[in-house]
Design goal:
- This protein is an alpha+beta fold.
- The chain has 5 domains: 63 residues, Orthogonal Bundle (Helix Hairpins), CATH 1.10.287; 228 residues, DNA ligase/mRNA capping enzyme (D-amino Acid Aminotransferase, Chain A, domain 1), CATH 3.30.470; 76 residues, OB fold (Dihydrolipoamide Acetyltransferase, E2P) (Beta Barrel); 152 residues, Orthogonal Bundle (DNA polymerase, domain 1), CATH 1.10.150.20; 67 residues, BRCT domain (Rossmann fold, 3-Layer(aba) Sandwich), CATH 3.40.50.10190.
- It contains 23 helices and 22 strands.
- It has a 5-stranded mixed β-sheet, with helices on both faces. A 5-stranded antiparallel β-sheet has the order 14-13-12-15-16. Strands 5-4-7-8 form a 4-stranded antiparallel β-sheet.
- Helix 1 runs antiparallel to helix 2 and helix 12 crosses helix 13.
- The protein binds 2-(butylsulfanyl)adenosine.
């Protein structure tokens, strides 16, 4: 009997260890080792053993992450070591001031140092949480609250898979170890989760805070939250390193995720440089950050520096430019694009976002307006990220006054009044009129852009101005512009007029591929244009292309072929094109190197790439004939995985899709 019991106990112990190891590799290291199905099988085995032997249930068993009944309210928890905040440095200059303050303070304490060693990590844009481990076991999770007292969210934090229920290092039984860090949504997880919400969250931070503070932990368990450790709080019977950088390493060894950037830097200049690098890499990170945390590395110096009332003297938050602000939505207008797509645009009370004044932002399409519940007059959240067009990401409903108005999406094109239409599987309404002035204006802008005719001085503003003064009517008419007309335009000096005319003339020397791309035909990107140019050789052959011939052309999809054929068949298009050609283009022979190495291959991207952004990777794939899709399916050929991959990794593994890293990718190229 004893033997049976002890072997069951042993089995349970082994299963718990195994499952926790798998979970650690998956959630903390992002290096999954087994499939979901296998994990589930082991989990169920453990569950049934535990059901029959409840006295053997271990506190760190994965089955203990879910299960208790909803709470009435959260209990209050006192932080033995207060959770302080940080003062901010808004730029390199303010980091210099911080360094000066540190040195001056230390000098008064007779520690004269020429250069200070700092540590620098990402400042996570999440929710601060304290985790208390007794003898290595998680006994309490708490929010920061007012810093002295927080809320007991133990049940909720237990549902977060990247939080170990038991530390992954042997620690003394009488030890108390408090780990501090942030609960957040990884970007990928947030996107997927939020897309399913009826009322979406405005950003990952709000979603993390809302998810963590659920009285019913079963709700929290359905939210894909992550935890990243950044420091220690209360410590008993456990030795900490003598510097912060090693403390972070120790946190990682104890089983936690840590900042992707954790640097040790000597001297102010290098520190400022590192701050700038961190700001540049921000958009490519798997999580959102609002800055970096800079700290004096040595524990000895930290102790001398001590604290002010609410924040330590030894640390500072180096804040990046805010990428998100709130402002009033004054109106919603409709922009008609080159291919007739109607995009609702938020007209905003101007607001500074990330150092740029934003007065317009995209609302994407009708469905997005409905999903977000945006009304005219609302206070909305505006976000910009890197070079991406600013977008309205949410509404602050609590600030509504009652006089906000619903936006009714137009049934007709606001420019040419044609009845708009929408395909069943698309979210976008389109103006069907190829001659719609708005479409034509966008077509001219596209024709003059870099990848096409590349006409210096003929950007968006100039094109709008020329249309406004009725100096142009379509692409061809730009080549009829006269000096006398141009100089009459507001703020147009003689020199600029001459420069524009010169640029127009130079643009007539063009490769056939660029010319075709410049026509702005739907689905005809740079690559398709190159394939077409190579196939037809001279522009006159363009009109003789027939549908079968197009479909048979390698690498041109059926949809593109059909669209092209329709374009060619349209007599108005033909007339316009002939008119354009008559302006005297000198088509250049250009080395049309069209790579087909990824021809027909479907790629999915996940995680953070080191040497390129995901957009750059997408461009490379497409230029070489491949396609990039948003999610993994059995039709996927390759998953290009960077560090910290999302759930796509596991799915690809389960479906036995070939997973490649950046090195494999470059080798393929
Ligand atoms: S260290 C004395 N490191 O920023 C406080 N804090 O104002 C020392 N935060 O809400 C904090 N990422 O939760 C530290 N890598 C990081 C952090 C970080 C985010 C938050 C923290 C607190 C605020 C400090």
């Amino acid at each position: 009997m004893f033997n049976v019991m002890s072997s069951t106990k042993q089995k349970i112990e082994n299963l718990v260890k195994k499952l926790n190891d798998y979970s650690y590799k998956y959630y903390v290291l992002s290096k999954p080792e087994i499939s979901d199905a296998k994990y589930d099988k082991l989990y169920r085995e453990l569950e049934s053993l535990e059901e029959n032997n409840p006295s053997f249930i271990l506190p760190d068993s994965p089955t203990q992450r879910v299960g208790s009944a909803p709470l009435e309210s959260f209990q209050s928890v006192k932080h033995v070591v207060p959770m302080l905040s940080l003062s901010n440095a808004m730029n390199g200059e303010e980091l210099r001031d911080f360094d000066k303050r540190v040195k001056n303070f230390l000098a008064k304490e007779e520690k004269d140092l020429e250069e200070i060693e700092y540590s620098l990590e990402h400042k996570f844009d999440g929710v601060a949480v304290s985790l208390l481990y007794k003898g290595g076991e998680l006994i309490q999770g708490a929010t920061r609250g007012d810093g002295a007292k927080g809320e007991n969210v133990t049940d909720n934090v237990k549902t977060i898979n990247s939080i170990p229920l038991k530390l992954r290092m042997e620690v003394p039984e009488n030890s108390i170890i408090e780990i501090r860090g942030e609960v957040l949504f990884l970007r990928d997880d947030f996107e997927k989760f939020n897309a399913k919400q009826v009322t979406p969250f405005a950003n990952p931070r709000n979603a993390a805070s809302g998810s963590l503070r659920q009285l019913d932990m079963r709700v929290t368990a359905t939210r894909p939250l992550s935890f990243f450790g950044y420091g220690f709080g209360q410590i008993e019977n456990f030795e900490l390193p003598n510097n912060h950088h090693d403390s972070i390493k120790l946190i990682s060894e104890l089983g936690f995720k840590i900042s992707k950037r954790s640097s040790k830097i000597k001297g102010l200049d290098k520190l400022v440089k590192e701050f700038e690098i961190a700001e540049q890499e921000r958009d490519g990170l798997p999580y959102e950050v609002d800055g970096v945390v800079v700290q004096v590395n040595s524990v000895e110096l930290r102790e001398i520096l001590g604290f002010r009332e609410r924040s330590p003297r030894f640390a500072i938050a180096g804040k990046f430019q805010a990428q998100e602000e709130t402002t009033k939505l004054l109106d919603i207008t409709i922009q008609v694009g080159r291919t007739g797509a109607l995009t609702p645009v938020a007209e905003l009370e101007p607001v500074q976002v990330g150092g740029v004044t934003v007065s317009r932002a995209t609302l994407h399409n009708e469905e997005e307006i409905e999903r977000k519940g945006v009304k005219i007059g609302d206070i909305v959240i505006v976000k910009r990220q890197g070079d991406v067009i600013p977008a309205v990401t949410g509404v602050i409903e609590s600030l509504r006054k009652g006089d906000e108005k619903d936006f009714i999406f137009p049934k007709n094109c606001p420019i040419c009044e044609a009845k708009v239409s929408k395909k069943e599987d698309e979210a976008v309404w389109r103006c069907p009129n190829d001659l719609c002035l708005a479409q034509v204006e966008q077509k001219v802008i596209h024709f003059a852009s870099k990848g096409a005719a590349d006409i210096d001085g003929l950007g968006q503003k100039m094109v709008a101005l020329l249309f406004k003064h009725k100096l142009i009517t379509d692409i061809a008419s730009i080549y009829d512009l006269k000096f006398e007309d141009l100089v009459k335009l507001p703020r147009m000096a003689e020199l600029s007029a001459n420069n524009l005319l010169k640029a127009l003339d130079e643009s007539k020397k063009i490769s056939l591929a660029k010319f075709i791309f410049g026509l702005g035909i739907r689905h005809v990107g740079e690559r398709t244009a190159k394939i077409l140019a190579k196939h037809i050789g001279v522009i006159d052959n363009f009109f003789n292309l027939n549908e079968e011939e197009l479909i048979e052309l390698k690498d041109i999809g059926e949809e593109t072929a059909k669209g092209l054929y329709e374009y060619i068949q349209n007599t108005e298009n033909k007339e316009n094109l002939l008119n354009l050609i008559s302006k005297g283009f000198r088509f250049e022979k250009e080395e049309e190197n069209i790579s087909s190495i990824f021809s027909g291959k479907k790629f999915v991207l996940t995680g953070t790439l080191q040497n390129m952004t995901r957009n750059e990777a997408k461009k490379i794939i497409e230029e070489n004939g491949g396609k990039v899709l948003g999610s993994v399916s059995k039709n996927t050929d390759y998953l290009l995985s960077g560090s910290d991959p999302g759930s796509k990794f596991k799915k690809a593994k389960d479906l036995k899709i070939e997973i490649i890293d950046e090195k494999d990718f470059s080798e393929m190229l």
